[in-house]
Amino acid sequence: MVQLFNTLILTAAVLGTVAYAQITAECGVGLGNCPSDKPCCSQYGVCGVGAYCLGGCDPKHSATIDSCAPAPMCKNIDSTFSNLDRIADKTKYLGDPSKADWVADGEPTIYDNQLLLTMAPDTVGTVLASTNYVWYGKISATLKTSRGKGVVSAFILLSDMKDEIDYEWIGVDLDTTQTNFYWQGVPNYTNGGNISLSEDTYNNFHTYEVDWTPDTVTWSVDGQVGRVLKKSDTYNSTTKQYNYPQTPSRVQLSLWPGGLASNAPGTIAWAGGEIDWDSQDIKDNGYYYVTFKEVKIECYDPPSDAKKSGSGSVSYIYDDAAGYESNVVMTDKGTVMKSFLGTGKNMTAALPASKTSSGASPSATDVETIPGLTGAGTGANGLRGEEETTTTGSASTSSETAASGSSDFVQQAQGSGADRVRIGGVVALMAAVFVGAVAL
Ligand SMILES: *[C@@H]1O[C@H](CO)[C@@H](O)[C@H](O)[C@H]1NC(C)=O
Ligand SMILES: *[C@@H]1O[C@H](CO)[C@@H](O)[C@H](O)[C@H]1NC(C)=O
Ligand SMILES: *[C@@H]1O[C@H](CO)[C@@H](O)[C@H](O)[C@H]1NC(C)=O
Ligand SMILES: *[C@@H]1O[C@H](CO)[C@@H](O)[C@H](O)[C@H]1NC(C)=O
């Protein structure tokens, strides 16, 4: 099995061929919870252990409320990008935010003291997620967007309960910044709002800020308020709850192919059409890219009535899957796993000695340990118009990706929401690097 696995990875990496992964959502709204042997429901709706239980792990749809690892607490950060030192690849990160400010999925690179998130032909782009969670704060990013049909640049906040606050840019409209918010991933197509800019977003750096308090979200561009959302305007009189983003969230920076041919028609239309992998930008650079100059996170105090256990200075957990602000508990629980076999219930789970010494990777064990990335965007941002909710659940795992390097290999769809996503050789190559890395 290990032999086969490695061979397939090599095939995909060496040939650099476009791989097709059969993507299957296993957990999430309408799909239920993960089983106890792979208890963690990843951001993309697939069950596993290890990195599945870290950032993005959905406590509501994991086996139990404590399956996910505790979430590292907010920390003030001012990221400038002269190197990749504070950016860890997802195949290396075990939950220690002192080692990295960002976790990368895809291909980030540094150019002229700026961070480029790249999207080469037939890849699903790049996502960076903050290692620390923000539970209210002021978050800003100074960036130049990408451009082109179907090319989507994004700067969002996304919680494990799928609360979301967004800035998004469609590559065919460089004069508009789209803003949006979601509560617990419930699609609501009336929540969007646009901010018009006088100077385009591709050629000019602008500073986009989200000021998120327990009562309001304010979107500001270059210091000018563009939109305000009040919590009081989101009250649902049926449930007597506020449908307002209110749970600890990671900051996510991304470039993704909304115009991927395999995405739902509404998403492709929203993104400005099918992506052109033969565009002048691709010919000139080899990839699409979005440029970040600086990202700042300033943490606000948690709500005055926030629950605490112990000193409450290390991590956030939930005490109930209802997932409201009042269900968040600030704790002293550690966030670091010993290996990629860890889960929230057993952070010290270790690789069996036989596996480590024989050089097998954790992903060559029976259970998935590193969630993949899809072309459907992060959070709910792949959902547009009249679409079904299945795109949120789309996901691949690194071993599916690797295995699918052989066109003969087709992962069986399990349950609903099966989707086909093209995944490039770059991702397969990352999987190969991963196998080498953990073999140490
Ligand atoms: C969407 O949100 C608005 C308020 O932001 C609300 O008036 C509307 O009823 C919501 N629609 C659904 C389907 O929840
Ligand atoms: C925002 O602008 C886009 C065009 O870039 C348009 O399709 C969309 O309907 C606008 N959204 C709102 C809420 O006005
Ligand atoms: C309130 O919540 C109920 C139950 O989830 C939902 O059906 C309804 O659309 C919501 N109403 C608004 C105004 O959001
Ligand atoms: C955690 O996993 C290790 C195996 O790596 C096992 O020996 C230990 O008993 C587990 N602890 C709990 C509490 O399940």
TrEMBL record:
Biased composition (Polar residues): 354-366
Top-level taxon in the UniProt lineage: Eukaryota
Membrane topology classification: Lipid-anchor; GPI-anchor
Entry's localization field: Membrane
EC nos: 3.2.-.-
Molecular function terms from GO: chitin binding; endochitinase activity; glycosyltransferase activity
Main location: membrane
EC category: hydrolase
Keyword annotations of the record: Cell wall biogenesis/degradation, Glycoprotein, Glycosidase, Glycosyltransferase, GPI-anchor, Hydrolase, Lipoprotein, Membrane, Signal, Transferase
Low complexity composition-biased segments: 390-407
Family per record: Belongs to the glycosyl hydrolase 16 family. CRH1 subfamily.
PANTHER family: GLYCOSIDASE CRH2-RELATED, GLYCOSYL HYDROLASE-RELATED
Protein name per UniProt: Crh-like protein
The organism's taxonomic lineage, starting at the top: Eukaryota, Fungi, Dikarya, Ascomycota, Pezizomycotina
